[in-house]
TrEMBL record:
Residues 91-110 are annotated as: Disordered. It comes from the Bacteria. Residues 22-84 form the HTH merR-type domain. One of its GO terms (molecular function) is DNA binding. Keywords: DNA-binding. InterPro entries: DNA-bd_dom_put_sf, MerR-type_HTH_dom, MerR_fam. This is DNA-binding transcriptional MerR regulator.
Length: 228
């Protein structure tokens, strides 16, 4: 039987309690309020101060209650797990959330949607990136040294997984990170060309232009390869 979900965009604490009691018989309003006080869930508030829980809030509560019931995890550890999920990592059946080991691939010619901003961008630590990409620390050091993988603050985006994986595959053909700087330069030039049209801020045209430039790049490379 499918579990009930909140109706509309948000639900009051009483409705959320009814939803959760179908799975967690011992949950109470006091428990939900306690989890909020501990910073594990942050429902919106109406002008009158009433809590309004979104579907994402309810899923978050389910995660907390499940981790307590099935894994006996303390709230401190669960809060760390939630922080990892907020960075785009995926919940695991047991243990902390993990970074995806593969990202959606673009079939055929790239389209604008492939370059559109996603709702949740990955923010990986260095160790999480290495694990997800399956690359040694030395290779990642070289990729960073040549500007092919760049951290924003202390985190890396999901594209860093793809770059590291492809670099490792190219290394099997004798192409080292220092040989790949031309790709970074070409990408920088293509981005510069796009910004000449759209400006430095992302616009509705940005993703479409990015798809067109990559399609052109692919066709040019293909046209210059020796014919079989």
């Amino acid at each position: 039987m499918a579990r009930p979900e909140p109706s509309g965009g948000s639900s009051g604490i009483g409705a959320v309690l009814q939803l959760l009691q179908a799975e967690f018989a011992d949950v109470t309003i006091s428990k939900i309020r306690f989890l909020e006080a501990e910073g594990l869930v942050t429902p919106a508030r109406t002008a009158s101060g009433y809590r309004k829980f979104s579907a994402a809030d309810v899923d978050r509560l389910r995660y907390v209650l499940t981790a307590q019931r099935d894994q006996y995890l303390p709230l401190k550890v669960i809060k760390e797990h939630l922080g990892a999920i907020d960075r785009g990592l995926q919940p695991a059946a047991a243990g902390p959330p993990v970074a995806p080991t593969s990202l959606p691939q673009t079939p055929g010619q790239p389209v604008a949607d492939d370059f559109d901003a996603t709702g949740t961008e990955l923010r990986l630590t260095r160790d999480e990136l290495r694990t997800a990409a399956g690359v040694p620390a030395g290779l990642l050091d070289e990729l960073e040294g040549h500007g092919l993988v760049v951290a924003v603050g202390n985190h890396y985006g999901g594209d860093a997984i793809v770059i590291a994986k492809v670099a490792a595959e190219l290394a099997a053909y004798g192409l080292e990170p220092r040989h790949l700087r031309a790709f970074r330069t070409a990408a920088d030039r293509e981005v510069g060309l796009i910004e000449q049209v759209t400006g430095p801020r992302r616009t509705e045209q940005t993703a479409e232009l990015a798809a067109l430039t990559v399609r052109l790049h692919t066709a040019l490379v293909r046209s210059r390869l020796p014919r079989p």
